[in-house]
Write a structure and sequence with these properties.
The protein has 265 residues and is of the alpha+beta class. It has helices at residues 3-14, 137-145, 166-179, 186-201, 203-206, 211-225, 232-245, 252-264; strands at 15-19, 26-30, 34-37, 54-65, 68-79, 91-96, 100-104, 107-119, 122-135, 149-155, 158-163. The protein folds into 2 domains: 3-184, Immunoglobulin-like (Sandwich), CATH 2.60.40; 211-264. The protein contains 8 helices and 11 strands. Helix 1 packs across helix 3 (166-179), helix 2 crosses helix 3 and helix 6 packs antiparallel against helix 7 (232-245). The longest helix is centred in the C-terminal third of the chain and has 16 residues, at 186-201. The model has no long low-confidence stretch (mean pLDDT 84).
Amino acid sequence: METLEMRTKIKDYFVEIKEDKFTKVKTIKCKHNITWKGNDLENKFMLTKNSDSNKLKMSIDYRHVGEVDSVFFTFIYENCDGGYPGMTNIKMYLILDDDKNIELSKGSGFDHKSQTIEDGDDYINVYLETAQLSVGMSDFIAIANAKKIEYSIRFGQGSLENQFKKEDLMIFKGFYSTAFDNEFDCEELEQIHQALGNLKESLKVKYELSESDIIRLKEIEIEKSNLGVFSFKKEKLKIECMSILKPYNVKFMDLGILLEEIKKS
């Protein structure tokens, strides 16, 4: 595929670009979020009554005003457990390729609100809290070029630590190539383009399954395959599997394909 066509596809997939013709302010917003939910967040930042009730999303935003480029990681914490975890002290620590350490601690954009939504015959209060972390250009370039990133996100009284998945790294790389570097390495672009094809086909990505749930589902599928056709334990494992997948609202037609994908992953 021609490089220009490849760049266009990456641009359309990753970002939405706007420019105010009056103020000359250019904004670029990533179309994709990095998401944590379910067991990943259980009792991490606040006590959770139900592990399915909390979600943390991180997106990338860019603004260009005059000669100033600004990059932000925007965090949104959503829950219906009855309160806010408190993001005013948010920090993020990164280790790139087991070598470079980055600390992001310039917080801004703090806000919180609640809204009531109808759930059948009941009404549920949903709480939303937001915050931004400023990312220096040199740091963002390093992040986009890293092949491995470990992270620690800290706010309120809790922390969340793990390693970004390959799909997450592609979000950083795709955003960087679109917003800042039109001459981004062609070999790297080819890898991103191939990864996009895999992402579109991946049901794990489509339903935003958490890493911990994927690991447990894989264990269940392997254990099921080693049991006989008629097995009480196998039925119990099926019930556990459906319980894990229930919050993700997996379509019936996708269920078998998704479980096979997880088993082979």
